[in-house]
Amino acid sequence: MGMFWGQTIKAAIAAVMLSIFFGDILTTHSVADQPEKNASVPHPQKMPTRHVPNLVQLHDRVFSGGLPDNDDAFAELAALGIRTVISVDAALPDVDAAERQGLRYVHLPHGYDGIPAERSLELAQAVNQLPGPIFIHCHHGKHRSPAAAAVACLGAGLINENQADQTLRIAGTGPQYRGLFASVADAQPLSDAALNQSGVAFPSIADVPAMAQLMVDLETRLSHLRRIAANAWEPPANHPDLDKDHQALLLMEAFVEADRIARQESLGDDFVEQLQRSIANSKALRQSVARASQNRSAAKMSLRRIEKISHDCRVCHQRFRDVPSNQ
Length: 327
Known about the structure:
This is Cytochrome C. The protein is of the alpha/beta class. The protein has twelve helices and six strands. The longest helix has 26 residues, at 296-321. It is globular, with a radius of gyration of 21 Å.
């Protein structure tokens, strides 16, 4: 038990992945053997941006960062010359927003527990085959996407191990994500035959397991509730469709659905117990949120409950999601 996240993400990967032959993938060639790949920034570096969170450049061809969540962010990527966007997050990519800026979207999700060998190969193939420059993102741009970008660039022979380590440090990748660090440490340059393999699927939207999608939904609802709370519990001017009661209801229902799936898939008593606590807290949050805009005490209580739920989510992630997939 405790490995449901790695297992569900692996199920998503299996759903979208072609059968890949792994013979003769690793090779001893160096970056110096490929002069066309040598053009690179001297060291990974943080890039100043207005709309794209935590943008890090690893190579002339590859950047990592956080979710581009509006048209301004995609326009900023296009202005930087980006041609392909790769999401490693479980959330469904906004393909239409990317296409409005002439960008291609590719969805290659993986978990916090590490990047499986199959996905590492696909990432390197994507960096090698797809139109560049390429922007690889997760949600915050601190953990999964810099690890994915480092693994992809190592596999494609674009950076060395030291540059990969620098990428994680500059991006702020948390040391608690041991599986991500292990994936970067294990990455090796791949053969030209592997990198140039034809027929690789680069889907714009990948199939993602229900539990993984629910985790994304829970984070979205908590984020929306914080935005509403910051606006005196009224809908934000730039997001007038957000209603506090509706968001609190959706949060509770997401926890209820997660509990149902956890029982159905036998994900373990400890995980179900954690979800039961979150269901109780989300029900209490609904009650206080209903009075939050008129009652100061209810507003304060709602904020405390939001933070309690968020804290419990982080604890749950540490126990069940962030554990390296080989443990």
